[in-house]
Task: structure prediction
Amino acid sequence: MSLFNELKRRNVFKVAAAYIIVGWLIMQVGDTLAPALLLPEWINSALAFFLILGFPLALFFAWAFEMTPEGIKKEKDVDRGESITHVTSQKLNGIIMALLVLALGYFAFDKFVLDPGRDAAEIEAAVQTAQETAAEPETDENSIAVLPFVNMSDDAANEYFSDGISEEILNALAQVKDLKVAGRTSSFAFKGKDQDLRTIGEALGVKNILEGSVRKAGDKVRITAQLIQASDGFHLWSETYDRELTDIFAIQDEIAQTILEQLKMTLMGGESELQISTKTDVQTYELYLRARQLIHQRRLDSFQLAAQLLRQAINEDPGYAPAYAQLGIVTLLDSELNYGTTSAEQARETALPQIQQALDISPNLAEGWAGLGLYYLQLPGQADLAIEHLRKSLALNPNQIDPSNWLQTALTSQGEIAQSTRLLEQILDRDPLYRPAIFNLAVKYVLTNQLDKSEALIERSKRYLANDVGLARAEGLHYLLSQQPVEGYRIAKQNLELNPSDPGARVAFSIAQMQLYQDEAVAESGLGWAKCISLSRLKRVEEAENFCRNLLDTYGEQGIDLYFWFLVDNGREQVLLQYLEERWSDLDAFEKDFPSHDGFAWQTMGHIALAYRLVGNDAMYANAMQRFRANLDFQRTNGADSPLMELSEAYYFALAGDQDATLAHLERASAMGYKFSSNISSDWKIYKELDGHPRFEALKQDGVRRVNAAREELGLEPLKT
Result:
């Protein structure tokens, strides 16, 4: 008898088939039950190993043994005339068929019952992982963070000196091509905190960390520096410098150059040139360092003291260009457009000569060109010049953080939303805890309907900036702009309670209250543009007009949009046109100052169009409408997609007399979370003609229902309908 026929007679093939089916079923059950039983991931691999190991054993037993009425016997001991392999074969057929039915049943259950839920969970997990990965800074092999050196001097007031030395070394390294240097804000965020270096490296996205100490006594200084590998704490290099204070610039440059040499030996290829520090006498330099540390605090009192110290530095050394540049920058930052109270016009008049003096002394000073860029950024209609000068500054020193942020602001005003978003992402890759970029990028993501990215960015930042005022403001604005009023209200209220004297916290809470139509409260104690809207809703016309007009200098484009909205909605179209025509020769000149391209979908040109229509100037109405349409299309092309955009589209079509398109965009704004009140046609007279339309009435009813649901969740009285 042939081997094949003998294998067949002994049912070896059928045993193999049955074993494979049973093995497959065991693997499927194991795959399902292992996670539920909290078994380790290797358990299924072990199961597969033993099943494979058992397969040849099963075939061997099928060949060597036989089932008989008396039990299992060796095949050689069974008389061929008494063999019942044919009976066993029939039983195996039945077993195999039953196993196949069971396998097919399990397959169908897995495919149509378990699979959809499992796939959804896997997709959700993948999305969550992608969001977290997108929010994490990239780690570059050629990367370093300079932590603030510890002040070991007897005088605690020398803290500014050790911080300043650290920052100057950071700045020197930041100018090296192909070396990623974590920004000052992020590096200094760990000052005074006993954090594991691995945690710091992960937070900042760097492989190497420089830390050290500074001891200053009289005219002597001792600086200790050590370069450490963040992943395991391994010391790559360390050195102590005992020098005269007059050698401070040489020490800084020497430390930075030595670090570069160490990194080149292990990581970086090619030559890396280090720019030499701008030198002055020690007293001037100390004044400059103290001023720089104060400017970083971004507080009104700090700005004023910094300006005083910089003037002293200039008196000590009238040829020290960095002091002039920083004096110009702090003067601009101290204006009402930024963090201070000085009028914008006065700040610009004072700052420009200081910045020009810095560039006269040192034409290639990056700080000077940055200051000039900031100056033009604060001039309406001068974004092109701001971009030109800021790019020149960054060409001289690409790793500057503040000028990069000012550049993205200028690009945003020109409608370059995608480009400014990429720049913000690059800033946070270098300086992950730089608050202005976190705030601005979160807003950009919301305005382009990337809410998941905005939320992931804020959640990542909260790990390292817990209880931070600026981050809380960014989180609150994320929820408010994305039309999630309950979360926005709670965060804004908590932030105000923790920081009652912070105007920004009060402005944010005013917005939260205004969204929930708490107009009386906003009118009495609110701040910012929300108060302008609430006063107008309450028909406190004179108060509203004065308040809205006073916002013009502080709020720029937003201020003029609100003021024009108030005027045209309260029968003051003549006042609007007089204000417009006295200040701008034509609409081209007006659009140069207020291009409305930043993604917030300002309706300023729509208000102008309505004013011209109300006075019967059809030609100028058509001109303004054409510009309004082009403006909205431009923002759409650049990624703007938010409820604010839909409201502006609705406003345009209401002006054009297209009710269906108006309602379609209002409905889309509602679907994206915007909540209308029953007084919408009173607050926006352009929608008066829609009163009574079933779709419009449904929008109002749904809006009131959702507002009241939010108010109830917050323990507030419902709106009256």
User: Anything to note?
Assistant: The CA atoms of residues 287 and 312 lie 7 Å apart. The chain has four domains: 3-132, 140-266, 282-363, 547-713.
